[in-house]
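Handoff note, outgoing to incoming analyst
You'll be picking up this chain. Sequence as last confirmed:
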Amino acid sequence: MIVHIVMFTFKEQNKRENIEKAKEMLLALRNTIDVLVSIEVGVNFDTAQRAMDLSLYSEFQTKEDLETYAVHPEHLKVVEFIKSVTEYSKVVDYVRE
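Most recent structure output, in case you need it:
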């Protein structure tokens, strides 16, 4: 199983609304991208300086499935929105054994 984790820090302008919209858009992908085995989106409640605002945890059967997801038109729409409202993101991809 391939695990794909992304964490985002959002810009201050309309932060709460943009976090909720991003969450909804990401969760909607489970209905449109068949290679997506599972997806979980969490909104952070921690106020520590090192904390990020939103996390995405998703699973795929293969690396090729992750690559298919990455270029899927519906995913790219979400990426476009998220890039416009975030300061930065961090990602980790690994094989769960």
